């Protein structure tokens, strides 16, 4: 069955009543384009918001610079566009307060430069995605406060990782009025263990026991992506997006060695990546049952 390729996460609104959840999606591709099939998918679910990654911010030559800016092929006339900016933790390890103030101004300008290419509506919300730590919390929160001052009338939200819920005393509470809990990445995929590293509900549940006590309202983002973790003969690993178990069922190319793990039988291309005989591939995907259980948690 054909699937929409625009989605990495589905965002469920926890502000809605239990019987009816508003659904949004993240768009994390490098070129903004919605195919007719994808538009039908969005329309059928009555999706009103798209969280679109505009660019990342990283450190290059000791300066914070935008990287991976999205290409725009069209405007969206159907959904509200919420700009998302990913900022590496290294940025806040490197910059001083003056550098953060400059970063806030440059970030505002970059968002305002890209946004009109995607939407003719006014910006209502901006979201920042940063896996901050106790050592960078003060600088990140300072950045958020500076952004809010530069964009009065625009709501600023953030993503929240599972460990930031569990360890909120150490990581702190960001100075915003709402956030999105990224309910995924429960373990490191490169560990190559039997558990699903994208989402293991048993592990995730250990992080959210005090979720009701978190002081700002949270929506939740559930993962609906898949990937293959490929290990070569030297034990080196890499991720290949979009791989599911169904892609590894050709018995002339793969032999299943245990659930979700396959050995390559002969050299060939897999989704444009060349795999060699005896490479091991682990397929990770999220089932409907996983999502239903995550929603209940």
Question: Can you characterise this structure?
Answer:
The structure is a single chain. With 297 residues, the chain is α/β, with parallel strands linked by helices. It is 26% helix and 31% strand. It contains eight helices and 18 strands. The strands form four sheets. Strands 1-2-4-7-8-9-10-11 form an eight-stranded mixed barrel. A five-stranded antiparallel beta sheet has the order 13-12-18-15-14, with no helix packed on it. Helix 3 packs across helix 4. The protein is globular and about 60 Å long. The N terminus is likely disordered.
What's the arrangement of secondary structure elements?
Blueprint: E1 7-12, E2 23-27, E3 31-32, H1 36-44, E4 49-60, E5 63-67, E6 71-72, E7 80-87, H2 89-94, H3 97-118, E8 125-129, H4 137-150, E9 155-160, H5 162-166, H6 168-171, E10 179-182, H7 201-207, E11 218-223, E12 227-231, E13 237-241, E14 254-258, E15 261-264, E16 268-270, E17 273-275, E18 280-284, H8 288-296
Parallel strand pairs: 2-4, 3-6, 4-7, 7-8, 8-9, 9-10, 10-11
Antiparallel strand pairs: 1-2, 1-11, 4-5, 12-13, 12-18, 14-15, 15-18, 16-17
**Biggest sheet character:** 8 strands, mixed, barrel
Low-confidence stretches: 1-7, 13-20
| Spatial extent as radius of gyration | 20 Å
Looking at the structure, what is the overall shape?
globular
Name the strands of the widest sheet in spatial order: 1-2-4-7-8-9-10-11
Helix/strand class: alpha/beta
Range of strand content: 25-35%
Summed over residues and divided by their number, the pLDDT gives a mean of: 88
């Amino acid at each position: 069955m054909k699937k929409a390729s625009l989605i990495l996460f589905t965002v469920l609104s926890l502000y809605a009543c239990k019987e009816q959840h508003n659904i949004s999606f993240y768009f994390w591709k490098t070129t903004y384009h919605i195919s007719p099939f994808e538009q039908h998918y969005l329309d059928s679910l009555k999706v009103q918001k798209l969280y679109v990654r505009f660019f990342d911010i990283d450190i290059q030559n000791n300066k914070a610079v935008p990287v991976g800016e999205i290409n725009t092929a069209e405007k969206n006339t159907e959904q509200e566009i919420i700009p998302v900016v990913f900022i590496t933790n290294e940025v806040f390890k490197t910059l001083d307060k003056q550098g953060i103030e400059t970063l806030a101004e440059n970030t505002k300008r970059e968002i305002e430069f890209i946004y009109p290419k995607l939407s003719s509506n006014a910006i209502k919300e901006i979201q920042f995605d940063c896996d901050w730590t106790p050592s960078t919390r003060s600088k990140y929160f300072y950045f958020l406060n500076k952004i809010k001052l530069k964009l009065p009338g625009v709501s600023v939200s953030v993503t929240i990782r599972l460990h930031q819920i569990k360890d909120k005393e150490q990581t702190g509470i960001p100075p915003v009025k709402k956030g999105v809990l990224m309910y995924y990445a429960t373990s490191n995929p490169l560990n190559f263990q039997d558990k699903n590293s994208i989402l293991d509900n048993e592990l995730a549940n250990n992080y959210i026991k005090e979720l009701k006590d978190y002081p700002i309202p949270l929506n939740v983002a559930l993962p609906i992506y898949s990937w293959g973790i490929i290990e070569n003969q030297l034990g080196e690993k890499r991720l290949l997006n979009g791989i599911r178990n169904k892609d590894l069922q050709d018995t002339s190319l793969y032999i299943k060695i245990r659930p979700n793990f396959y050995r390559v039988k002969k050299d060939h291309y897999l989704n444009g990546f060349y795999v060699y005989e005896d490479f091991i591939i682990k397929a990770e995907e999220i089932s409907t049952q996983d999502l239903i259980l995550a929603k209940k948690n």
